[in-house]
Amino acid sequence: MIDNQLIFDSTSTTVGPHQTVTMTVKLPSCATQVDLFYGPVLQSLNGQRYDTRKLAYAQLGGTNYCTPTTAGTSAPVPTATNTATATSTATKTAVPSPTNTATKTATATSTATKTAVPSPTNTATKTATATSTATNTPVPTSTNTATATNIPVPTSTNTATATNTPVPTATNTATATNTPVPTATNTSQPTPTACVPQGLDVFYVLDISGSMGDAYPGSGTKLDAAKQAISQTNAILSGFNNGSRAALVTFYGATKGNGFPPTFGTVVKETQALDDPSFVTNALASLTAYGGTPSAQGLRLGAAQLSGETNGTNKPVIILISDGVPTISWEGNDRYGYGFLDADVQAVNVTDGAGGYRSIADVRASGAFYSQYNMNAGEPLATLMDAVQYTKSIVPNVTIHAIAVQSQQGGIFNDSVLRYTAAQGGGVFANPDSTANLQTALQTAIQSSACSH
Q: Which range is least confidently modeled, 125-139, 147-161, 266-280, 288-302?
């Protein structure tokens, strides 16, 4: 169990804006978890976790669980290196063999943290710490590596600390260590061990635009990976045995646009109402990827349905899953919007460069000008930001998680509007780059909501 993990080695440093810092920790010769987080190091995970301070993690060594040794002795170990880079995205590479070097790249931007509303201050300091943790108690094998980032707001200076107690931990982009993540073929999942989970009403708002049909590490396509991750998460919800329910909304749009208004966006209620999570799992099988990305329409429909169906007992949760920027705006009608070029929308940043987010009006007035609409390329981003505020207004106690399905194969997209969505919605933001990481990201979001009471 996580409570039985022991710290093995740690190091810490301070990361400045646009600065890359390499962090190295020793690894034991047995099963290990390397965590990246900010804030103080926990010398023991017994009864405590990094929770919202987690940024990223890697699990190495498979099921070769550690046997506690006499204090002061240690076997030769390889090292793990964490590199923190101040950019607008986050990537992570872990070398799973305990005899090799494990490398993790975390991205730090001067944007907002996961739950914080943008701060007007221009300076903030966080000290990044990388630690490695050896596992002494057998746990379910996890092949997932989460990249749930909280957008560190860094400053500079290099300070390193190292300890040599049995078992490791990590800091700078913390990792979700609450529950081991099973493989894609599992249908029953353990409930989180850190709490007695509360009942949830979960609305998945899933992007099924054309790019979701692109190849993705660990599965056939991004959409295949999303189906697997949602199915596993539904098994966890069912395993809570507390009346948790789920529903599914998908969105896609016509491929034309960029001068041919109106561009039709399609939003589909794949399940008729909040119900047993297995109904969502069954509805996933027939989904295919097509067209553009009307994200705002999808979120608005999910919010409206959730508002009318949540029972007042379960906690309302929305999980927005997308692999790109919105390319179709929402102009007050569920049936149509205006189409914009993906590259033009990606060129508009939602962050303000000082640890916060720009106003909706400022984003709307930014980017390439489309004379045929009398609009700028920031319009579809602004309509999604509007949809987030609309969702909060009609479901006041909702938590909105945002998952950016990134891919090194297809190129990394500007996910700043999804970071905004999670920050404003008080939820988890993650940008997984593989099927395993996507599964971990979804389960981390669910466990965060289930244990937030």
A: 147-161
Per residue in 351-361, pLDDT (tens digit) is 998 989 999 99
Phi first, then psi, for residue 429 (nearest 5°) are: -110, 135
- Omega before residue 262 within 30° of 0, cis: yes
Q: How many CB atoms lie within 10 A of CB 276?
A: 16
> 245 - beta bridge partners?
201
Closest CA to 12 of 175, 151, 127, 134: 127
Please give the average per-residue pLDDT across 222-251, as a whole number: 95
Partners of residue 275 on adjacent β-strands: 246
CA distance 186 to 118: 39
Q: Indicate the pairing of strand 127-134 with strand 32-38.
A: antiparallel
356-to-64, 107, 386, 407 alpha-carbon distances in Å: 43, 16, 17, 25
- Cite the beta strand spans of 63-125 per DSSP E: 79-85, 102-107
Write phi, then psi, for 115 (nearest 5 degrees).
-105, 0
Task: Give residue-wise pLDDT tens across range 423-449.
Answer: 999 999 999 999 999 999 999 999 999
The mean-pLDDT minimum among 66-75, 316-325, 412-421 falls in 66-75
Opening angle at CA 283, ends 239 and 438, nearest 5: 60
Supply the Cα-derived Rg of the chain in whole angstroms: 21
Peptide bond into 120 cis (omega under 30): no
Report the b/e string of 233-257 with b at 16+ CB within 10 A.
bbbbbbbbeeebbbbbbbbbbbeeb
**CB 419, CB 402: distance < 8 Å:** yes
Residue from 403, 430, 207 nearest 298 by CA? 207
Query: For 167, how many CA atoms within 13 A lie in the half-sphere containing its CB?
Result: 22
Alpha helices per DSSP H over 183-321: 222-240, 277-283, 295-309
Between 33-42, 52-61, 81-90, the lowest mean confidence (pLDDT) is in 81-90
Measured distance CA(19)–CA(37) in Å, rounded:
17
Helix or strand run (H / E) with residue 381: helix 379-394
pLDDT the model gives residue 385: 97
* Position 204 pLDDT exceeds 70: yes
Our measurement of the distance from residue 193's CA atom to the centroid of its chain's CA atoms, rounded to an integer in Å, reads 21
- Amino acid of residue 38: Y
3-state secondary structure at position 64: coil
Nearest CA among 190, 202, 195 for reference residue 243: 202
Question: What is residue 384's predicted lDDT score, i.e. its pLDDT?
Answer: 96
* Least confident interval from 29-43, 73-87, 251-265: 73-87
